[in-house]
Design goal:
Elements lengths: L4 H5 L3 H5 L3 H22 L24 H54 L21 E5 L16 E15 L7 E14 L6 E3 L23 H12 L5 H11 L6 H15 L3 H9 L3 E11 L2 E9 L4 E6 L3 H7 L7 E4 L11 E3 L1 H12 L4 H24 L12 H13 L6 H12 L1 H5 L12 H17 L5 H19 L4 H13 L16
Parallel strand pairs: 1-3, 5-8, 8-9
Antiparallel strand pairs: 2-3, 3-4, 5-6, 6-7
Helix pairs in contact: 5-7, 5-17, 6-7, 7-16, 7-17, 10-11, 11-12, 12-13
Length: about 525
């Protein structure tokens, strides 16, 4: 736009009236250009631009004819309410200002002292404090004695003659899934007892202790059988956090309200991170499965990590999905795809994808942008937008028809049409209108990737697969405002990959997560990732 706020503030009727005729024509042309561009921006929505549907206001229904009137009425009522509130606040504030100033000075001194004390203290439990244990006492539903089976000294197999003495124990709270006759979820509280067995022959004492996974510098969370929450309950917590998009505190509220079970926010968060660590070894396998596909759909969206802007990438293959969070540069793409990948990729118009020769472009983005130009107030934009839509519709009809027969190239059939359209794009590559110029150049810069589909009409024409599968995690980001730590970010990528991969294979990810956590707590390797369920296609 030509004119900024500083320029418009200086313009009024007096200013316009004192201008010479030629000057007035120049100013009017600039004002008209800015007005049209402003109208075009206001008219943008998810149907005629690259804006996602989530950016629409919740009260707007694109299919309604009265959207504009309803929105204007809503905004007018909102502005009147704000005006009334500001008048009342100013009136009451002037009366209370004098009486509260002294009290505010005293409060500020107290707050300063409290802030100084808190700054010296480290977060969490203070060194030397007594602390406290779990206060909720649940009825015991079962008991498991972990008695050693063999003497570690003489290798004698223990029997009833060997004395076992319990030395320690702990409780594990878990979820038991009901059978077909008695469906539902039931809370279990199992007491696990550990101790020492004295060998009757060599009198050596062999102790039993909870197993645990070896330490990992990348993860601060420990994996051990000495854990309050059982594997199935961990999987349920992951389901509520990742699929239901519930915050840690809402998960806590759910268990307390419906099961009477008290779990701290820290315990819930630890369970989610523990699941991420347990599943981390299967990342390489999922990448292999993605790259084994003939065509990989790739997309990316913004992700916040404690206020830091990152990007969530998704790579969708035939039988696997892989997510990773990192920068928006090409290093992430090179790390996952690599230079040796010989398959095809389907992407949007982001520039980092242009280094790959076997690349297809999503036509949905181009269609939305063309529709926005068609609805523009700029005459050149409208002409170009209509031309793009008509040309793409013609090509799509031929592509759909070609899919019903043998896969043959459509390039010879549309050679002249493509040359005409390329000439049209060249005509507007230096247009004054920003969006017109940008779309014309986008076609020219990505020409081969856009129209390569004519050589391979059996490939999809849009990147909707990646965009739809990524949509759920965009909603999760909006609900939880991203993640708070690098470990939390990594956990989201791992869990999202496993969940969507197994859902694509018509398998339950939650059974696999519970099984993996149980195995890894014992120090055992991660179970192999289940293959596609052929019974369900």
């Amino acid at each position: 736009m030509f004119l900024k706020d500083h320029d418009l503030i200086q313009m009024d009727e007096v200013y316009l009236q004192q201008l010479e005729h030629e000057q007035l024509k120049t100013v009017s042309a600039r004002l008209l250009s800015d007005l049209k561009e402003a109208h075009d921006r206001l008219n943008e929505n998810s149907q005629n631009s690259s804006r996602p549907p989530s950016t629409e206001a919740p009260w707007i229904n694109l299919e309604s004819e009265n959207n504009t009137e309803k929105t204007e009425e809503f905004l007018e009522e909102e502005s009147r309410a704000e005006a009334d509130l500001s008048e009342n606040t100013e009136a009451s504030g002037s009366q209370e200002a004098s009486t509260t100033s002294d009290a505010e000075d005293k409060d500020s001194e107290i707050d300063a002292k409290d802030t100084e004390k808190r700054a010296k203290k480290k977060p969490g439990k203070q060194e030397g404090s007594t602390g406290h244990g779990r206060t909720q006492k649940l009825p015991v539903t079962g008991e498991v004695t972990h008695q050693p089976s063999q003497c570690t000294a003489c290798e004698k197999n223990f029997d009833s003659e060997d004395l076992f003495i319990a030395t320690t124990g702990h409780f594990i709270i878990d979820i038991k899934v009901g059978a077909e006759e008695t469906p539902g979820l039931h809370i279990t509280n199992t007491k696990h007892i550990y101790g020492e067995t004295t060998c009757s022959e060599c009198h050596h004492q062999t102790s039993s202790i909870p197993e645990k996974c070896a330490p990992d510098e990348e993860w601060s969370v420990e994996m051990s059988q000495w854990h309050l929450v059982g594997p199935t309950l961990v999987s349920l917590i992951c389901f509520m956090a990742m699929r239901m998009k519930l915050s840690r505190r809402r998960i806590q509220e759910y268990f307390l309200t419906w099961y009477g079970l008290q779990l701290s926010v820290g315990t819930i968060n630890q369970c989610i991170h523990e699941a991420g660590r347990a599943l981390s070894p299967v990342e390489e396998k999922m990448i292999e499965d993605v790259l084994a596909s003939e065509l990989v759909h790739i997309d990316e969206t913004s992700w916040k990590e404690k206020g830091k802007l990152l990007w969530l990438w998704v790579f969708v293959g035939t039988t696997a999905v892989f997510y990773t969070v990192g920068s928006r540069g090409k290093e992430v793409l090179e790390k996952i795809i690599g230079p040796l990948f010989e398959g095809w990729i389907m992407t949007d118009g982001y520039g980092v994808y242009r280094d790959y020769m076997n690349r297809l472009r999503c036509w949905a983005h181009l269609t939305r942008k063309a529709r926005g130009l068609e609805e523009s107030l700029n005459q050149e934009s409208r002409i170009f937008g209509k031309g793009v839509l008509a040309f793409l519709d013609l090509l799509m009809e031929s592509i759909y028809a070609a899919r019903e027969g043998p896969s043959e190239s459509l390039l010879p059939q549309f050679k002249e049409k493509l040359e005409e359209f390329q000439t049209l794009c060249e005509k507007y590559r230096n247009a004054k209108n920003d969006k017109l110029r940008a779309l014309a150049r986008e076609f020219l810069n990505d020409w081969d990737a856009i129209f390569r589909i004519l050589e391979h009409p059996h490939f999809p024409i849009t990147n909707n697969l990646a965009e739809q599968i990524l949509r759920h995690w965009v909603l999760l980001r909006r609900a939880n405002h991203g993640t708070k730590s690098p470990q939390g970010t990594r956990t989201v990528g791992i869990l999202a990959s496993v969940i969507d991969t197994l859902r694509m294979r018509n398998l339950s990810p939650w059974e696999y997560i519970a099984q993996t956590v149980e195995q890894r707590r014992k120090g055992l390797p991660v179970p192999p990732l289940p293959q596609a369920n052929l019974l369900h296609g």
